[in-house]
Amino acid sequence: MTNEEKADEECMDVLRWATNETLKVMARLKKEGINRGLDTNREYYAYIDKEMDRRVDEIREKYGIKPKNELT
After folding, report:
1. Where are the alpha helices (DSSP H) in 32-69?
2. Following CA atoms 22, 27, 28, 32 in sequence, which dihedral angle do they give, to the nearest 10 degrees?
3. CA 50 vs CA 14, 53, 55, 56, 72: distances in Å
4. What distance in Å separates the CA atoms of residue 37 and residue 55, rounded to the nearest whole number?
5. Are the CB atoms for 67 and 22 separated by under 8 Å?
6. Neighbouring C-beta atoms of residue 31, cutoff 10 Å
7. What pTM did the predictor assign?
8. DSSP letter (8 states) at residue 41
9. Could you tell me if 61 and 10 are in contact, meaning their C-beta atoms sit under 8 angstroms apart?
C-alpha cells in the first residue's frame, strides 16, 4: 500500500468522524428546539471543521504529502 493510499484511508476515518459529530450536533440542536441548519448555526459546527483540518494536516505531514495548492 502506498503512502497516498494509507493517507486516503486515514482521511476517510476523519471524514467518518466528522459525519458522526455533525449528526450528534444535529440531534442536540433538534432536542433543544433549535433549527439544525448549517447556515444559521455555523458556530455549533465550527469545532468539527477545525478538528478535521487539524487531523488531515497531521496525516499529510505523517506521509509527506503536500496540500494541492503546494504541489507546483
Report:
1. 42-63
2. 140
3. 12, 5, 9, 10, 26
4. 25
5. no
6. 8
7. 0.83
8. -
9. no
